[in-house]
Structure prediction request, 616 residues.
Amino acid sequence: MLRNIRTIRIEWCDCDPAGIIFYPRYFEIFDTSTTALFERVLGMTKVDYLKAFDFAGHPVVETRARFRQPTRFGDDIAIETRLVECAQSALRLEHRISKGGALAVEGFETRVWLTRDAAEPRYVHRRPIPKEVIARFAQAATEQAAVEHADTAT
Amino acid sequence: MLRNIRTIRIEWCDCDPAGIIFYPRYFEIFDTSTTALFERVLGMTKVDYLKAFDFAGHPVVETRARFRQPTRFGDDIAIETRLVECAQSALRLEHRISKGGALAVEGFETRVWLTRDAAEPRYVHRRPIPKEVIARFAQAATEQAAVEHADTAT
Amino acid sequence: MLRNIRTIRIEWCDCDPAGIIFYPRYFEIFDTSTTALFERVLGMTKVDYLKAFDFAGHPVVETRARFRQPTRFGDDIAIETRLVECAQSALRLEHRISKGGALAVEGFETRVWLTRDAAEPRYVHRRPIPKEVIARFAQAATEQAAVEHADTAT
Amino acid sequence: MLRNIRTIRIEWCDCDPAGIIFYPRYFEIFDTSTTALFERVLGMTKVDYLKAFDFAGHPVVETRARFRQPTRFGDDIAIETRLVECAQSALRLEHRISKGGALAVEGFETRVWLTRDAAEPRYVHRRPIPKEVIARFAQAATEQAAVEHADTAT
Prediction:
């Protein structure tokens, strides 16, 4: 299963008067983490992959999160993002945020592939994920599995 | 069932390069809508009810949302927030965002009652919701049902 | 001098762990206030006026603010926005935020008129403000002055 | 002159429908950059230095910025933050954001030292910066100048 891990620090500006992260910020973190996974697999930045595949974005149509323990400003957290499904019409991702090794937040999201309307660019349409993109994700997952198997076997 | 409706405009600063609302903003909208419901029932602002009941907040421990159609800057939306459960240990709320009468987003959240640690105020503890608060919510629901029944009967 | 006043409540999500507004939020408030002034004068929403005048936006090129007293969540504030200059190449605006009648924040900003590059829509160019727009702002200022003079004379 | 440099990527969530950064985000970047400088000099995170020096924060009382060229999502930017004054009552800082070596944004800010009211912790008071803090900043500036002089001399 394809996955990416990144680490960030919870900043003052992420937190609310209770001194803990304001929970909508987690969805910003999830969004940036999904982009980071896509950028790594596709080998280009989001700016470039939106152009390369001529689409308007991969918006979330459904999401869910469980907040198990709060994080507060100054905390360093790790976000592990896994692509658990990449089918014809939808991408499903899971995020696990941990702090000091302990699970803090779980996130789940379903995304779709949108293209911009030719006549009225403000409007967008849901489209099948290009086969080339699905193939690249599958290949990346295979390569990652091989590396992880090798690591385990050592 | 206790409910509150408020309307807001989606602003430029809520939207992303795709021209639609950046979805984490919906959770900010949900949070402010929950506060608006509480403020109306408790008859005081959040600043004051946190002090009156001596607690640190009512953070979300689990949330979920379905995004059925996008909203874009300049859209006027209505948010209907309903308190669907107010038990000893948890508050469950549902939000329905509509645009031009059509459902755009559904949100679901579970909140708990937190008090601040006496010795180390940065830390918080989950506590039962005060009986006075539960009673006020129940009374408000009864009053609202009576008003709505009267409206229907007319 | 053309001006517009709007009132908002400082929300929980606007505030930081010190319990006061996180100051970058004021610039979001200024931006929305400028849009509100433009929408009123041009008689259409920002979505529509960007299309009507075929431009990409009126970004800030320079801004300044003085924070005289903090605002905290639950505070109701008034924002008075004045257009102090609308010349060929730049718009200058001033914002005054008050709380309970007392001045809390002053903001100053200079904006320019941008159009989108025909060949590469991601890029934008600075252009003179259309004469029609300058004329509408001038007319609105004259009308407002007449109303305010009448109010004063009464 | 004491300075710190950090690099970040402009993310999708930082940008507006024009595809460029929404300018209030720069003030969030400035705020985090100031904290990064303080953390390095004081040798502890903001969480810890607020406790160590028993104060409520170092809020901005005046700020100013010039936006020379836009940054857009995917851009990697460098922020150089310099402490240009650390007097009895105020801290003055300057930020320079560059993209690909070219100056994009300049920021200027004046901060004060706040302590929390003993009787009513929601309220805060302006206080002189502790001598220990001023001494540490002076020492860090001297050390940095020595390192930079050595680098230049080599």
